[in-house]
Amino acid sequence: MGRKRKPGEGSVRLRKDGRWEGRVVIGYDEKNLPKTKNVLAHSKAECLEKLEKLKEECAGLNRKLPSRADPSMPFGEWIDLWYQTWCKPGIRPTTQKSYETRIYQHIVPGIGLIPLDKLKQSDLQSFYVTQKKNGRLIRRDMYGDGLSDQMIRSCHTACYAALEKAKKEGLIPVNPAVGCKLPPKKSREMQVLTHEEMRRFLIQAKEEGCYEMALLELATGLRRGEICALLWEDLDMETGELRVERTVNRLNRELHLTEPKTKASIRTVILPQSVVNVLREYRKTTDSRWMFPSPVKEDSPRDPSSVRKKLRRVEEHAGCKITRFHDLRHTFCSTALEHGMDIKTLSAVIGHVSSATTIDVYSHVTDQMRVQAAEKIEKGFGRNETWDAAEKPTERTVTSSEAKREPFRPYRGKYRKSGTGGVYRLGENLYEGRYTPKNADGKREVHTVYAKTSEECETALAAMINEVKARIAEDKQKKKEQTPTS
C-alpha cells in the first residue's frame, strides 16, 4: 500500500491498460457532488508532473483573466481578476494557498455566477449561512458538515476586499458586504506551561534528543518556522546575539525559505549566557550549517511539522498539558512579563509590529502585573503606622511550588535493536512497518508493510525482514560466485 495522499493533492492510480491516471477535484455541482479532471501518462513520475500542472490550472494560477472589468460580469470572474491582479502579488505563498482555497472552492462555486452589479447583501448572507450548515468538502466525519466560524469570516474578508475594490473602480455604487452578520470572532485559549511543567518538559526533551531546541524556544519565543530556519552563522557565540531573518514553511510537500511575515520580525535577540553555553556544546556534535538540521534529508532544515509532533510527544511523556508549539512562545512572553520585562522590549524581542499587539495578546498577564504593582506601592509608601498597628502579624504559609519537589524521572520508550526495522502509526487504524537494509551493492533499500494494528504490523514486519535478509544473502552469494578470483 502506498502513501495516502492528502486532501487536495488528487489521486494517482495504475490502470489496467498499463498507463498511469491522475485525477483531481476541480469543483462541486449543485448537488454537492465532485467534478473531476484527469491526466494520463506512461510513467508515474510523468503522471505526477502532469497532475501538478492540472492543479495549477484549476487553481487559477494560469487562468486567462478578462480583458477588462465590466459591472455585469459574473462575481466569480471579478473576484478572480481582483485576486490575480491586486491581491496575490502582495501576499506570501502560504497565504496565497489559503486565499485560493476559499475563493475557488467555496466563493466561486457558491455565488460566482451572480452578476457583479446584481450581488446583494442578502446573497452574501445566504451564502454564509449555507456554508455554515453544509459547506465542508472534506473530513465531514471528523468536523461536521459545515465550515468553521473562522473559515466563514475568511470568505467574507475576501468578498469584502474584492467588492470594495469594485466600488473604488466605479463598477458598483456601494459595497454589499458591509453590514453582513458574521459568526463571532473567538480567540483560541492560550495555554502556558507552569514553572514545574517547564522543568519536566526540559528534562524529558533532553531524554528525547531535542533539549537544545526546546531550551532555545523557551528562552526566546521564536515562531516555529523561524527556529527551524536558523543557521549557525546567525549566532554570535561571543556576544550571544541571534539574528532572525528567515522562516521555513511547507507548501505543496516542499520546504520553502522566505523572509519573516513582517519587517519587525527581522530582529536580533540577545540570548542568556547559559543558553549560549548549551548551544556551544551542541555545535560540537553537528557538522551541518543548519542549527537544527533535518534528520532524514541532507543539508535541509528540520520540517516544522515534525517539530510540532516531536514536542507534542515530549509534553505527553513529561505529563504536561498538551499545547501547540505557539504556546511555548506564549510561555516565554508570560514568563518575561512576570519577571519584569517591559512591554516595549518584549514586543521587539518577539517581533510584533507594535507594542499594542503585545498588550492585546497578553492582557491577562498585564492585569496580574497591575495587581502586583499595587501591592508594591502599598508596601513601599502607601502604608502608615495606623495600618501597621491595626494588623496582626500572620504566619507565612509555604506555597506548593516552594514545597520539596519530587524528582522527575523522564519517560524512556522502548528502543528497537538494530536490524529490526521500525513501526510507525499513520492513522487511527493504519500502521507502517519499515525496514531499510543495505542490499548486495551496498545501497539502502526501503521495504514496507502495512497493517491495521501494531501487533499485526510487528508480525508482518518480522516475516518481511526474514525474507529480505534471505534474499540479500542470496544476492551476495551470487555476486561472490560471479567475481573472478585472481
Low-confidence stretches: 382-387, 389-394
Distance between the amino and carboxyl termini: 46 Å
The share of residues in extended strands comes to 5-15%
Q: What is the N-to-C order of secondary-structure elements (H for helix, E for strand)?
A: EEEHHHHHHHHHEEEEHHHHHHHEEEH
Kindly provide the radius of gyration, computed on alpha-carbon positions and rounded to a whole number of angstroms. 29 Å
Largest sheet: 3 strands, antiparallel
**Tally of helical runs:** 17
Please bin the fraction of helical residues. 40-55%
Name the average pLDDT.
83
Count the E strands: 10
- Choose one word for the global shape: globular
For the largest sheet, list the strands in their spatial order.
Answer: 1-2-3
Descriptive tags:
alpha+beta; 486 residues; 12% strand
Textual characterization of the structure:
By secondary structure, this protein is of the alpha+beta class. The chain has 17 helices and ten strands. It has helices spanning 44-58, 75-87, 93-111, 121-134, 140-143, 149-168, 195-207, 211-220, 224-228, 273-283, 304-318, 325-338, 343-350, 355-361, 363-380, 385-390, 454-482; strands spanning 11-14, 20-28, 34-41, 241-244, 247-251, 254-258, 267-270, 422-427, 430-435, 447-451. A three-stranded antiparallel β-sheet has the order 1-2-3. The chain has a three-stranded antiparallel β-sheet with strand order 8-9-10. It has a two-stranded antiparallel sheet with strand order 4-7. A hairpin with a 2-residue loop joins strand 5 and strand 6. The protein is globular, with a radius of gyration of 29 Å.
